[in-house]
Amino acid sequence: MYNELPADERRGVEEALLHDSELATACADLLLAQRTLDGLRREPRRAATDAILQYSRTFLAR
Question: Does any domain span residue 35?
Answer without folding.
Answer: yes
